[in-house]
Amino acid sequence: MTDSSAIRSLESFLKTLSDLVWGEFMLVLILGTGLFLMVRLGAMPLRRIGTAFRQLFQGRQAQGEGDISGFNALMTALSATIGTGNIVGVATAIGIGGPGALFWMWCSALVGMATKYAEAVCAVQFRETDHQGRHVGGPMYYIKNGLGKRWMWLGALFAFFGMLAGFGIGNTVQANSVADALSESFNISPWITSVLLMALVGAVLIGGIKRLASVAGKLVPFMAIVYLLSGLVILALHLPVLPAAVLLVVDSAFTGTAATGGFAGATVMMAIQFGVARGVFSNEAGLGSAPIAHAAAQTNSPVRQGLIAMLGTFIDTLVVCTVTGLVLIVTGAWQTGAEGAAMSQEAFASVIPQGQHLIALSVSLFAFTTLLGWSYYGERCAQYLMGERVVKPFRVLWVLAIPVGANMSLGVVWILADILNGLMAIPNLIALLALSGVVVGLTREYFARKNTEPLGL
């Protein structure tokens, strides 16, 4: 069997497994959990967006015990979420599921705000302090401390899948996307890209969560603003066709998309599957990754950090992914047959001189911060399973995995990431459903104490 046929066989097997993991059960579980939490919270995450932004700006200062500010906790979480999913992931979703996939990304984000809120509330409420005085938390801890010892196996299952998923969604996918973008735009060898990424990531990891949060707090706002402004310029130049693009997104979500140009056509189920899967890949609501970062926040209230945390989903998908998706549609790049980063590069280059280089640099910067953020998630999962002694070996292994991802097939990398994402989400979503009463109780108590409008339940 030749290398190419072996890769095709592997892709075929992984695609079958991905379809199984991301079948109707997973779609119902993710959207259903978010909808259930949103209803139990009386749509509070939607009604309190203004309050959340005020808490975010106040969160620059320490307001309780923890290791990093509430603001930097969100920036650390966003460093892992605002990444290639916002550029490559959106392009992949629309390239396979059609414009309708963007609609289902919006749906997953709207209910995902409630999911992300609940995750952070539980993370702070049930966090622990390790032997070195660091605050640690996440699904494995709120399963252990919230559901009791008889459920510890579920927490261990999350940590196991989370540790492995980090090497997919947070490492190999990011390295692959950077290598692909820099190779296309600047003809830089993937091996050179690998060495540079290894050196930069290794240098930051030596400093631990505080250095990571400091870097994220500076890079994330800068890169998001530059990318958004560029995308908004393109949308402004295509303003006359923008309403038609939005209508196409909504119509395709319920009718599918016929083959046109280089686009092969998509069913409604394909739009839902890839829209939700890429939406979760992008904003990570329900995966259980972001609460690992929020557990380290300097806060005296789980609800306050939950309000800050839910903005991650809002910013990531409803703002950044929307801009990307609409740019792909109004420029017609989604019909060209280009894949991944190449589709986004084609869209930006069609309007902005040397726009492909802007995308290459954006992907590189986004992916770099995601490599950092997910290294922390994977490290905490590994520490939960094997203790403090595993931290340094894990960091070494993390850096060594970068060149593997940079030189793998794009199809294999993305499908493998989808599978691992789904497997780590299941234990977390079960825990959130079981702890929903705790989340609602803490929320009622917080807003009652603030003498504000009571939670409408």
Verbal overview:
77% of the residues lie in helices and 1% in strands. The protein has 457 residues and is mostly helical. It has a two-stranded antiparallel ribbon with strand order 1-2. It is built from 20 helices and two strands. A hairpin with a 5-residue loop joins strand 1 and strand 2.
According to DSSP, the number of beta strands is 2
Evaluate the radius of gyration.
21 Å
Given the C-alpha coordinates, what overall shape results? Answer: globular
In the predicted model, the low-confidence regions spanning at least 5 consecutive residues are: 453-457
Largest sheet: 2 strands, antiparallel
Derived structural class:
mainly alpha
Helix fraction, binned, reads over 70%
Overall pLDDT:
85
Percent range for β-strand residues: under 5%
Count the DSSP helices. 20
